[in-house]
Amino acid sequence: MHWLARLLALLRSWFRPALLDAELSEELRLHLDRQIQMNLSAGMSAAEARRSAHLALGSIEAIREESRRARPGALVHEAARDVVFGARLLRRAPGFAVTGAMIVALGVGAATTIFSIVYGVMLRPLPFPEPDRLVAIWTRPGNSPQRVRVHPADYLGWRTSSTSFEDIALVFPSQNLNLTGWGEPERLFAAGLSANTFDVFGVRPALGRAFREDEDDIGAPLVVILSDGLWRRRFGADPSIVGRTVTLSGAPFEVVGVMGPEFQYPGREHQLWVPLTIDPRLLARQRASRDHLAVGRLKTNASIARAQREMDVIARRLETEHPATNRAVRAEVLPLFEESVEGVRPVLYGLLAAVGCLLLIACLNLAGLLGARAAGRAREFSVRLALGASRGRLTVQALAEVAPILVVGGLVGLAAARLALSVFVPVAPVALPRVDEIEISGAVLAFSITSLMVTGLVTAFVPAVKAWRTSAGAAGAARAATTAPDQLRMRSVLVIAQVALTLPLLVASAALVRSFSALMAVDPGFRTENVLTMHMAIARSRDRGDEQIAAFYTRLVDRVAAIPGVVSAGMVNRLPLSGNNQYLAFQFEGVADEVTLQSRSVTPDYFRSMGIPLREGRVFTERDTAKAPPVAVIDQGTARALWPGERAIGKRYRVALPGQPPTWSTIVGVVGAVRHGALEADRDQQIYFGHHQFTDGRTALVVRSSVDARGVAPAVLQAIRDLDPNQPVYDVRTMDDVLARSSAQSWLGMVLVTAFAASALLLAGVGLYGAVAYGVAQRMREFGIRLALGAARSDVVRQVVNRGLLLAVLGSAVGLGGAVALTVAMKSLLFGVEPVDPLSFGAAVVILLGAAFAASFFPARQAALTNPSVSLRAE
Fold first, then answer.
1. Residues with Cβ < 8 Å from 620, sequence gap 6 or more?
2. How confident is the model at residue 383 (pLDDT cuts 50, 70, 90)?
């Protein structure tokens, strides 16, 4: 252990002189004061007394500086001395130290939290080789307001004709498989992949192998690849699972591989991947149904622009070959990375701008705090300068005093950021991609350290300049210097800047609050009170086709409807606001153009259970079986768009449904319009099919009750188990919960921006309070004299408060331009609110002025309570 003893001795030799230096500096300052007082008592003038004292002690300081430079490790000694001395000064002012550290923690913690989210979602590259060559390919029908998925027939045309891609993979993302035989039955979200998918992404399974080309043939043995999460959660991370058989939806599947945790395509909810089988017999008849995803890998010499031009040519050729289904349908090529974050980019960029403002406000606030402290130490700086210290040494020491505040505040901020992320990630909106990649990584840590360094440089500028500008002859006048107008002017400028940066955040917060209120006031087209929902994925098998599944739905609805407290029950294959939509292309009789509509399959009592009103005609009945004439119900938006001023009942249409030839069907009813996609989106035109005539294995049960919806959930679940013990049920929620989940992204943006605005308002209020209190402290004698001469205390309060309000008004005027720019930039995030909204701007200004009044009132009250006799005795 001799090396440890030597290390301790070395550290002691480094740090002990630093401690002695700090103590000696204090002793020299006290000695200088005593020497000046002795010279004054001897009859010297003030200038002569100071000059004589400086000459007497200057040599001592010079000798001390020389000895310091002569010691080994002089630079280390100086740095240690400065840091230790700064820490000792902060220990004597705990209020100042804690306030400064908390300001740094707030700014750095908020910046680190938001940057962690932005980096994990938007900046971190996709975890695949050469991710910039991966693209997503979508289709856009000529009359569709948004991109839609692709059809396998289009995919085959692209793959055989394009030359810009190394290969194109096809993915069916909406497949459900029920796992049985391994504990409780569980519905698992699966995706069907073409055999080349893993090659397109450039990844291989962590265990086992990928799919072979022959495994996506009709009749091929069933195989499956597990996700890393499912493998660990349900199979105990057992490597021997590869090669074993599991039962999925009643069929045996051989496990051929386990993917690594980085592969989560198409989404983090997918836990299984199976080969995608394309039935050649159905390609032509199902071309109008687009529900697949296409992912391509560009060749090394190909660009997205070149690929897009090529896809445009192919789309025109497909339109010529298939005019009935591909008329005005074009392909869109997008970077896979950009496509995955497109929906959340505006929100995250807005949050990043907000936290940037908050960080800058924290810097200005801390600069004002340090400026006030530097002004109070002007006498100390002048004494040390007179004793022979250089201006550079004083500047370094002023910077060193900031270091402990930055270090402590930075560590607290990082801890707070880690805690905030641990709370945020589990409750993050479903629409937020790549949530599992949100963490305090090396890049995030580098950002935090950089922001901390920038904060230190900005905030240390004021005391460093103060130390540099200190005059050696200012010791006797140090007290007067602290009341100089430029000091008060500088603090006022800092406060105005803080208010100017706070106003845009307050305006953005007010606009988002108003936008969220308007969103919650939207009529979704159905009633949510006392409605319970739950999802099921019915497994198809050789003895369980559409007829058997439709009969199961009928029996289940009848049994649930008989439960006490249940008013009605119905089923739908895609619940409103669930984020799942299916578009089909229809040809209506008497309408020239093909029309793309959202489609849903429902049971007869679905409309009643959801509270969707019947506007015209009738809804479905159990007589609308698969053998009955095909009928449909449309919403009133579709009826008005296709036949304005006419009755829609009796109109006919044709559509190619899966497994059915396109035949003429009749519209028998019109129901109210429903916002199926999102509350903030316009109502898509909608068509409904009866569950017997269009049967979907994935369905949602909707139960309306006369009591609390959650109260009937156990009985409903028992009814499902009685009919099929192996049927998993998932996503059990009330319709109020579904409605809240659909607006979760808007709610999250509003809450975060409001939190930042509140933090900025608090910091600005602290800065304003400090500026006003500083001004009051310098004018306490003046206020006392004015009160002694008969001035009213209310006049003193009014004068001080007016000063604070003036700073707030000036800051608001400066910040108006930034507020307008910010709200215009976040236009896409607002619903029902104009970017330049007078009410939002007015509310923000009123809140700022209210905070300014509160921050100014307490110093004003202190000024009004000044004892005039004390001021007169001082005079």
1. 602, 603, 604, 631, 633, 669, 688, 690, 691
2. low
Burial of 626 (0-12, 13-18, 19+ CB in 10 A): middle
Contact 257/209 with Cβ under 8 angstroms? yes
How many CB atoms sit inside 10 A of residue 230's CB?
A: 17
What average pLDDT does this structure show over 133-151?
A: 81
811 closest CA partner among 857, 778, 763? 763
Supply 17's token pair.
């002189």
Do residues 790 and 759 lie in contact, with contact meaning Cβ atoms separated by under 8 Å?
A: no
Written as six digits, the tokens of 860 are 């004003």
| Residue 56 neighbours by CB under 8 Å, 6+ apart | 35
Is residue 555 within 8 A of residue 604, CB to CB? The reply is: no
Both tokens of residue 154? 């289009």
Closest CA to 622 of 600, 605, 599: 605
Pairing relationship of beta strands 686-690 and 595-602 according to DSSP bridges: parallel
What distance in Å separates the CA atoms of residue 375 and residue 212, rounded to the nearest whole number? 76
pLDDT surpassing 90 at residue 498: no
Q: Which of 669, 875, 672 is nearest to 785 (CA)?
A: 875
Which residues have C-beta within 8 Å of that of residue 239, sequence separation ≥ 6? 207
Decide: 699 and 573 in contact? Cβ < 8 Å: yes
Structure tokens at 509: 């917060």
At 398 the three-state DSSP class reads helix
Q: Is 72 exposed, middle or buried (0-12, 13-18, 19+ CB in 10 A)?
A: exposed
Tens of pLDDT along 23-67? 445 555 566 666 666 766 666 666 666 666 655 555 444 444 444
189 close to 270: Cβ distance less than 8 angstroms: yes
CA distance 45 to 348: 66
Which pLDDT score, from 0 to 100, does residue 560 have? 93
Query: What residues have CB less than 8 Å from 709, skipping those under 6 apart?
Result: 530, 531, 532, 703, 734, 735
DSSP bridge pairs for 601: 689
Q: Whole-angstrom Cα distance, residue 658 to residue 694?
A: 9
CA separation, residue 82 to residues 13, 397, 400, 654 (Å) = 16, 5, 6, 84
pLDDT band, very low/low/confident/very high, at 455 (cuts 50, 70, 90):
confident
Q: Is the pLDDT of residue 670 over 90?
A: yes
Give the tokens for residue 816: 């108006």
Residue 503: enclosing H or E segment and its boundaries?
Answer: helix 485-520
* CA dist., res. 532 & res. 516, Å (int): 24
Instruction: Tell me the C-alpha distance between 663 and 222, whole Å.
Output: 34
**By three-state DSSP, how is residue 139 classified?**
strand
3-state secondary structure of 532: strand
688 φ, ψ (degrees, to nearest 5): -115, 140
- Calculate the CA 335 to chain-centre distance: 21
Q: Strand locations in 149-222, DSSP E?
A: 165-180, 186-193, 207-208
Task: Compute how many other C-beta atoms are within 10 angstroms of the C-beta atom of residue 271.
Answer: 23
For residue 690, give the 3-state DSSP assignment: strand
Q: Using only C-alpha atoms, what is the Rg of the chain?
A: 37
Residue with tokens 């659909």: 742
Long-range CB pairs of 320-329 (<8 Å, 24+ gap) are: 322/153, 322/287, 324/587, 324/594, 325/287, 325/288, 325/585, 325/656, 326/154, 326/287, 327/142, 327/594, 328/141, 328/142, 328/143, 329/139, 329/140, 329/141, 329/142, 329/154
- Rounded to an integer, what distance in angstroms lies between the CA atom of residue 266 and that of residue 258? 16
Which residues have C-beta within 8 Å of that of residue 456, sequence separation ≥ 6? 399, 402, 403, 406
Show Cβ contacts of residue 462 under 8 Å, excluding neighbours closer than 6 positions. Answer: 367, 368, 370, 371, 374, 490
